[in-house]
Structure formats: structure tokens, C-alpha cells
Amino acid sequence: MPLNVRRNTILLAAALAVNSCLLQLVAAVSALTFVQITGIEGLLGLGPAIFLTSAGLVALPAGRAMDRFGRVPVIAAGFLIASLGCSLVALATRTDSTVAVIAGMALTGAGGGVALLARTAAGDMYPPERRARGISYVLFGSVFGAILGPAIFAPLFSGKELEPDALTLPWLVAAGLALVACAISLFIRPDPKRIAEQLGAHASEPQPSAAPLGELLRRPGVVPAMIAALASFAVMVSVMNLTGYVVVQHHHQAQEDVFPIVGAHVLGMYALVLFVGPLIDRIGRGVSLYSGLVLMALSCIGLTWFESVLETAVLLFVLGLGWNLSFVAATAQLADRAVPAERGKLLGFNDLLSALTGAALALLGGLALDALGVSALAIGATVLVLLPLVRLIRRGEPPATIAARRT
After folding, report:
1. Potential cystine with 354: which of 62, 114, 233, 322 (Cβ 3.0-4.6 Å)?
2. What pTM value is reported for the model?
């Protein structure tokens, strides 16, 4: 069976490009949508928290399903769920239904959680010494989403008052984009899990049975990678999802100005990923993890001093770049430590912890933002992203570059 690695990589990248457009809408207006429909301004972080909580709760079962049924069916189902969720949010903007907006955000988050596991498929298709760059090739598709997102959504808000009715069409467009991503993912053949199994067979390596999660967590390098991934993802998503409220409510800018900022953030996350992947393979996972966390800390603390749209966009770009370094390195390290039948489960558990932490930070950040202002959010995020760095360095736990035995 031909492996079709290049073709599958392009298709996965295309699906993530479309998905990143959808995520930009979530980042830009999920908090605002929730406040507009429910009228509860003090809990502006609850909308993103619902999204992230559902993404986390679905990650582990979705990862297990990927290990059992393959990557493609689960990824396609995730995009279908996201489409349904966006449609429900659109309905809520017309009916002012709190139940519909909560259900819609929960389903959209669940779909997004499954889509994030596409990096499991990326790690499947490349050998350990090229795994980080393989993951980077797939994630690079999101760069095009960063360009398309503002082009698609900003005109939909141009010249409109920020009322629930103005949010209906953007959420419907997002539902359509999720269906496009679903269709693209169905063309991925053979399933990346099968490619990983064939790579092991070609290397004349035995394929051990899947170990339980507890054993996976005891392998060297797993816990440090998960700590770094948790910090980078949780802080990144909480700050990103509150940016729309910060810009509109605190800087009094038009809603369409949010999308260039979110687009800059997504560019930071993915634009340099083709260079970051090979760099991580060259300098090692540990150095990459630590460097990414430092960049994120500098970006977060900068929010206390810089307020213009351009300055905020630059800071969010740096935040995305720091996440890129730390998250790709952590993903590669976790994939190194697992065989194909274990990767979905391990990455799913990592995503569960990361998303739930991000949800808690989004909720707490929203409360701090509403009560104390932007500085409280910025300082809190900076401290939280540096704490794991201090712990890992003090314990001397740099993850190894490559685990050769079980890949």
C-alpha cells in the first residue's frame, strides 16, 4: 500500500487551515456572544470556558477512539460536531436562548478538541528524527487560515452595531467552514495510524501492545512535556479568547478590528512553524519548551503597557510564536514516548488537562479583567506561564531529544 505521506500531509494541513478560520471567530467573539445573549457581563470568560471545557472532556475519549478506529473517522466526526455547534450558536443569536448558546459553544468546543488531535495523525506519518518537522508541516496549513479568517469575517462585522443579530451570519459561515474541513479530511487515505504501523514494520521493529495510561505517564520525559504543554496551551487560549473583549470594551475599537489581532496571533502560532519544526529536531525538545514559555511570558506582561491595535497584534503574534515552540516540542516529545496504538490516548489526556486548565484560566481571567482591568490578566498569565519553567529547571528535567525505543 503506498504511504501517500505527502498527499495526506497536504490534506491535513488544508483541513486545519479551514478549521483555523473557525477558531478565529471563536477567539474573537465567543466571550462577546455569550455576554450579548445572556446579559451576564461579569462572567464574560464563561463562554470561552464552556468551549475549552468541552474540548478537554472530549479529548481523551476521542484519542482512545482514534487508537481503536483510526484517525480519519474521528477527525471527520469532530468537524461535523463543530458545524452543529456553530449552527446552534447562530440560532441562539436570533432567539436569545441561553440554552442554545451554551449547547452550541459546548459542541463547537468538542469539535475543536477533536480537530486539535489531528497532530496525532501528523506524528504518525514521520519517523522520530523527523517527527517535529512532520507535525510542523501539518500545522503550517493554519497560516492560510490566519489570512482567510480576517478576510472572511471582518467584512461581516464592518459598519454594524454589536448586537446579537449581527452575530448570526458569522456563526453560520463558521458552520459551513466546519463542513468543508470535514469533507477534506475524508480524502485522507490510508489512515495515518496505518502509515505509522507500516513505518514500524518497514523498520523491522516489533509493535508492542498498548500500555495503560498510568504506565505511559511514568515514562521518562512524559511528565515534563505535559507540564510545559499544559502551561503553554492554557495560558495561550485563555489570553487569546479574552482578547476580543479587551479590544472592544477597553480600547473602544470597532469589532472588525479584533480579527486582524486574532489573525496576527494565529500567524504567530503557525507562520514560522516550517522553521520551528526542524529547529526543534536539531536543538532538542527541552530547549524549545523553555524558550517558548519565556516568549509567552514576555508577551503577556507586555499587555500591561501596550494598548493600541497594532501593539496588541504584535504581542499576540509573540504569544503565538512562544506557544508554537513549546507546544510542537511537547507534542513531538509525547509522540516519541508512545507507539501508534498509544499516541491518541496520551495526547488526548494531555489535551484534557490543558483544555480544562485553559477553561479555568479563561473564567478567572474574565473575572479579573472585569473587576481589576487588563493588568491583572496580564500579570496573572505571566506568572502562570513561568511557574512550570521554574519548576522544570530547578528539578533539572529537560526532556530528551528523541526516544528511540518505543517509536
Report:
1. 233
2. 0.73
Give me Rg for the CA atoms of the chain: 20
pLDDT tens by residue, 394-404: 655 444 433 33
C-alpha–C-alpha distance, residues 317 and 188, integer Å = 31
* Mean pLDDT (whole number) for 208-217: 78
Distance CA 78, CA 72 (A): 10
Q: What is the pLDDT of residue 406?
A: 42
Cell numbers that stand for 294 in this block = 519565556
User: 238: exposed, middle or buried (C-beta count within 10 Å: 0-12, 13-18, 19+)?
Assistant: buried
Euclidean distance between CA atoms 167 and 108, whole angstroms: 15
Measured CA to CA, the distance from residue 339 to residue 124 in angstroms comes to 9
| Residue 135 grid cell | 507535525
Burial class (CB in 10 A: 0-12, 13-18, 19+), 42: exposed
The end-to-end CA distance of the chain, in Å, is 21
Domain 5-395 is of which CATH architecture?
Up-down Bundle (1.20)
Q: In this predicted structure, what is the pLDDT of residue 318?
A: 92
Cβ neighbours of 3 (radius 10 Å): 15
